[in-house]
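In this supplementary section we document a worked example of the pipeline. Step one takes a protein sequence of length 624 as its only input; no multiple sequence alignment statistics are reported here. Step two produces a three-dimensional model, which step three serialises into structure tokens for compact storage. The input and output of this example are shown verbatim.
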Amino acid sequence: MSIVAGSVSYTHKEMVDQNSFRKSFGNFVYDYYKELNYKNVCLSYWHRNVSPESHHDKQPLSRGSHLLVSDLRLDNREELIEALPFVTTSSPDSDLLYAAYSRWGPECVNYLVGAFAFAIWNKETDTLFCARDHMGQKPLYYSEVSDRAGKAFLFCSSPVGLIEHPRVTRDANPEGIFNVLMGRECNELTETVLSNVTRLAAGYCMQVNSSGIKLTRYWAPHAGPDIRYAKDQDYVDDFKERLSSAVESCINTNWPVSSFLSGGLDSSTISCIANCLLNENDRRLTTASFVLPKNESGIDERAYIDQILMKNDFDHLYVTKDGMSFLGGVDKNFDVYQGFPYLLHAYHLNLLPKLADRGIRVHLCGYGGDQVASYHGMWVLERLFLDGRWSMLGKMIKASSYDQSSSSARIFLSMLRNIVTEVLPDMRSDQWYEDKARKKLILPSLANRPSYREKVLRSHSLHSRLFPKSIGDVMKNLIQYDKTSVRLEQISAIYLPFGIEYRTPLTDIRLIQYCMSIPPEQFVIGKKRSLMRRAAKDVIPESIRLGHNKFQGSLPNLFDLMWEDRSQLIERLYSCSKDSDIASLIDISKLDHYLKQKNVPENVKPKLFRNIQMALYLAWLKRD
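The serialised model returned by step three reads:
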């Protein structure tokens, strides 16, 4: 893992931004820093040894007519080594990337599998080529600046580098803030909460030169050739083999490895597979679970977690939010992360120092199961109905009726209702928009800014109606229009200062493409999430494999944590109200109104929490 940054000056023949990024990550953990200056280009690199090959990494690279800087983990090294000249099994991933670009040019992104964000400067064409991996496991942000020093293009794999850069303003971006408060964050919306910082979307690459920026989508979820086997078990065996391979790629390190363990299907399966693979080399997995403090009501998964622990030799950590206050956590959050991500993550602030003390450099998570081997609503049944596969439809409906609350008749009628609804006109209207913005506690003056309403009402979103649905439509919605890539980059940023790389085997694109190529009924044979459940047989306890469908884990009651600090929050919000910029973006009076109430409706709590965090972040951005 690494942090990469760079700048290209288009006004001067020599670099005027030399050393501008150097101090941005002073409190982050890394093994070495190196900077490369060439005429009007400056590349910066903060390296962290993780994989065995990374010990040989000497970035930034300067070879022939190219300069290269990258944060990457390649999972198809064997294929690339076989296809490319002058690389060996000991070559670091950056050498493989350089060889791939030398052979295929910008098309090299179509040959890479893994997590990556990189930039390559072509000395002959004065063009910068940047790319981000398919799912967005590695972030990349950029800024175009025009000031007294001239015009320049800046980029960094962490927004911290741009936030701290002397040529990037900290002006808030109203549309980015609106998207966050409205819950519209997704891969396709590249605005951030800063007016001069933009996300490169996952699955995109770009070429930058003095003429401007050319963005290209090089990947979108799509099904490959149909995969058809004679037996249902063959699909399970193939999936399990691919899943084990994805996990193995993610634990390619000689350093200690940890994994999140929630007691659910995905994290339990990933943890058990990883531990089994590590045991083959006399190594042991560290696991961590977020659980509720004693005497706090809520969903606590200890009972499920303990079942996993009884059958595995994990080095386990139970982590709570004990000893943390809301404002104390927010202030520490800004101090540790220099403002990004701005969301409070109380558990991680207590967990990550413990992992760092154990020498952990890779942390696994089961995130992504809903985007891969999952059951996404009724679409499978709808697809079988529309394809006229009546016998299989009947079997699937019967399999879905495993509890008393869901009769076969109800499921069938629900399926028909969905089909009818999909073909009706979209009912989103001006009134719908205004009601939604009001419920999100968004200022009318912000919601009514030019184009905001039209974008929400007319643009594609996670809930846009597609008919007839295919697995491709479902995957595209979940990956491109849900929060998948945004959440991956936020969580990766949480681990970054501690020198720990966050990895998610279930977002391996080879798994995704496999699941898009098999018959849809494989997801629901016998039970929802059938493919993953069948693959987990003999891997996790049967009570977990066939048991609960959890909707959330042992979540901290962060609202109650915030509520305990409401007197101080009222004071801080009063200060925010005196700032015209913040007051024009956040409805401070409404937040103040709710904080002064004895009770807050349950449906208001998450919106109130989100708005207050944003107000505090905007105040932090305006600090001296």
